[in-house]
Design goal:
It is a single chain. This protein is an alpha/beta fold. It is built from nine helices and 14 strands. It has two domains: about 160 residues, D-Maltodextrin-Binding Protein, domain 2; about 100 residues, 3-Layer(aba) Sandwich (D-Maltodextrin-Binding Protein, domain 2). The strands form four sheets. A five-stranded mixed sheet has the order 10-9-11-8-12, sandwiched between helices. The protein has a three-stranded parallel sheet with strand order 5-1-6. It is globular. About 40% of the residues are buried.
Length: about 280
């Protein structure tokens, strides 16, 4: 009887410890981590046309990190511009959706940086001869998702490379998302589109002989981060530690290779690394 009592006590203690660990992470639902994402940004996240499920680099990485934490992932879809408000109102525990870590966003949320990126301009092949270099777009209209930092990137680049040299400014037109920007360009409403270099490379595979890159990336230091509420440092730090484990055991490298993003790797987890 005493042995049985000890075994039951040990099991109860382990169960209580596990429950306590989950409670400390301030999860909405014990045992699962709810993740906000906007699945229209391949190869980061998108709806796989063959399976009808959410797929992509961010999905694979989130699943790998959650496995380290013994949690089940639940992906909650949202418009990109509503990701931050969804996090604050409790729709999910974190965000992973190709979101750039920047100082402005750090005012209301924390980031665990996990991959580098860089905005680049591209146009249709029909305009290839007209726009060979980025400066050829001075005075022209460039579209991009209004919910991203790309508008600021374009305006900053234009100020330094167009206006500073006496050329007219690039006009930025914010759209609902990158799909709308590309459609508008195809329809002739925009001269070019700005998008993350990793996503347009994937898009060019899906639509061969449609687009062509214009010049070099506007920035090479854009960094994507997983977003967390500022008052949930426990979950933020746990995810950062789990991400480091995913890097060390080689899973991160495998996921990067799978999605053609090996040149976008970061060496370790960094919290709010963009200053």
């Amino acid at each position: 009887m005493k042995i049985t009592h000890l075994i039951v006590s040990a099991i109860a203690l382990l169960t209580a410890s596990a429950a306590s660990a989950e409670t400390k992470l301030n999860l909405i639902t014990d045992g699962e981590i709810r993740i906000l994402t906007n699945p229209i940004y391949p190869p980061m996240e998108f709806v796989n046309p063959d399976s009808g499920t959410i797929d992509g680099f961010d999905v694979d990485l989130a699943n790998a990190v959650a496995k380290k934490l013994n949690l089940t992932t639940v992906f909650v879809t949202s418009a990109f511009q509503e990701l931050q408000s969804g996090l604050q109102t409790g729709r999910a525990d974190m965000i992973i959706s190709g979101m750039s870590d920047n100082v402005k966003r750090q005012a209301s949320m924390d980031f665990v940086d996990y991959i580098t990126s860089g905005p680049i301009l591209f146009t249709t092949k029909a305009n290839a001869e007209q726009y060979k270099q980025t400066v050829d777009l001075c005075g022209k209209t460039v579209a991009g998702s209004r919910s991203t930092s790309f508008g600021d990137n374009v305006r900053d680049w234009s100020a330094a490379n167009c206006e500073a040299r006496g050329k007219p400014a690039i006009k930025f037109e914010g759209t609902a998302d990158s799909n709308a920007a590309r459609l508008g360009m195809k329809q002739g409403r925009y001269d070019a589109v700005v998008q993350g270099i990793e996503t347009i490379a994937y898009q060019m595979k899906l639509e061969p002989d449609t687009f062509i890159l214009v010049g070099d990336p506007l920035l090479s230091n854009d960094t994507f981060g997983m977003g967390f509420k500022k008052d949930n440092t426990a979950l933020r730090d746990a995810v950062a530690d789990a991400f480091d484990e995913v890097i060390k055991d080689g899973i991160y490298g495998e996921i990067l290779k799978k999605w053609g993003l090996v040149h976008n790797a970061v060496p370790k987890a960094v919290i709010n690394g963009v200053k």
